[in-house]
Write a structure and sequence with these properties.
Blueprint lengths: L9 E5 L2 E5 L14 H4 L5 H4 L4 H13 L4 H8 L3 H13 L3 E4 L6 E4 L3
Antiparallel strand pairs: 1-2, 3-4
Helix pairs in contact: 4-5
Amino acid sequence: MIDHGLEEPILSEDTGYFQVVFKGPGNNISKLRIPETAKKKIVTPSVEEKLNKRQKQIITQVLKKGSVTSGWCKKRFNVVYDTTQRDLSKLVDLGILEKVGGGRTTRYVAKSK
């Protein structure tokens, strides 16, 4: 729903029943259209909500320079290797980045669509 300009569903429980409320666009049908700029984004709004600040900066760097390495991430964010690997692995699992090469030559690039 977020990807289409709508609010998240409201989850609640009333008198022992589970309820889900989906709010529509109301009279503003134009909310349902995704602007052209959003179509060009590498990450949809619903996926972007799941990313931490480092992961968003990694994506920005990939878009600017074409790729990143775990070494760049470790140095840029002043974090340990495991944290860098978790961030990069999540971006690969979400289908945003892909791993190219192996060992010391491993780099991460934007996944081709």
